[in-house]
Design brief:
Low-confidence stretches: 197-229, 236-268
Radius of gyration: 30 Å
Number of domains: 3
Structural class: mainly beta
Strand content: 35-45%
CATH architecture of the largest domain: Sandwich
Strand order of the largest sheet: 7-13-12-9-10
Mean pLDDT: 78
Order of helices and strands: EEEEHEEEEEEEEEHHHHH
């Protein structure tokens, strides 16, 4: 597959088509037109629907004095998102140290460029949020704190020269010390979440759609459809295979709603092998 079009600081992925018309005794006519390619990433795949979580703890030291620990736990519902969605962050930050700390969250884009056996990396801030300052002995809980993903390029994971990755960093800003942070990997896709599993072959699912309803909780397992015996009674089955009288005037029948006549045969079972 072709890599997604991308413009970076140290490299780019571009596509264009060139046409040339040769005419006798005249100069050729040349035309060059650029176009954009998107490699579709369906976030409904199981690996991108799995939750991401982590826990870390840090104890601050100053010379021979040791203060209490600072603990951080964070979780997001899935790994895959699309631009325009909001990531719901569930976190708990406990400050048992003697310092004032501030919990924060940031989405980073990491661009990696490979050429001639060397690699250059660029890290850019995409979106961030800030929590309330925590004094000593305080705890803050985020119950689905939202961080919206702006319009960004989708992840590029299968290109040999450019790689674009995303991550959510939930961290505690500690003045005068190294921050305590958790990195949760993200994949920015092109096909948004829907409640009935993956439909990568559907052209309609690859187009843009309204993502305001994506906060719904997905069922763990879809309910199985009822069996044929549960739906069709013996009386319905016998009536559906009974011989049907021929209509004298078929045109008069079609004057009514056709659906009323289709309903009679909706429980018709498939024919037996001997009948065929």
């Amino acid at each position: 597959p072709l890599a997604t079009s991308f413009e970076g600081r140290h490299g780019s992925v571009r596509y264009w088509v060139k046409a040339e018309l040769h005419r006798p005794w005249l100069l050729p006519v040349k035309l060059k037109k650029e176009f954009t390619v998107f490699e579709h990433i369906d976030i409904n795949t199981p690996s991108l629907l799995s939750p991401q979580a982590g826990t870390k703890e840090k104890t601050l030291c100053c010379w021979f004095c040791t203060s209490g620990p600072i603990s951080l736990s964070a979780k997001i519902e899935r790994k895959g998102y699309t631009p325009g969605e909001s990531i719901q962050i569930f976190a708990e930050i406990e400050n048992c140290s003697s310092r004032m700390v501030v919990p924060k969250a940031t989405i980073y884009q990491t661009q990696a460029f490979y050429a001639k056996g060397k690699m250059k990396e660029v890290k850019q801030l995409v979106a961030n949020l800030r929590g309330e300052s925590l004094s000593s002995g305080k705890t803050e809980t985020w119950n689905g704190k939202q961080l919206k993903i702006p319009p960004v390029s989708p992840s590029i994971l299968d290109c040999s020269i450019i790689r674009v990755e995303y991550s959510l960093m939930v961290y505690v800003d500690i003045p005068g010390a190294m921050d305590l942070f958790l990195n949760l990997p993200l994949v920015i896709g092109t096909i948004p979440l829907h409640p009935f599993g993956s439909r990568t072959s559907s052209v309609s699912s690859q187009g843009s759609m309204n993502t305001n309803w994506l906060g719904l909780t997905l069922p763990e397992r879809p309910e199985a459809p009822p069996s044929y015996a549960e739906v069709v009674t013996e009386e319905n089955r016998q009536s559906s295979i009974a011989p049907i009288a021929a209509f004298d005037d078929f045109e008069s029948v079609l004057q009514g709603p056709l659906f009323a006549y289709i309903q009679e045969f909706r429980f018709l079972p498939p024919p037996l092998y001997s009948e065929v």
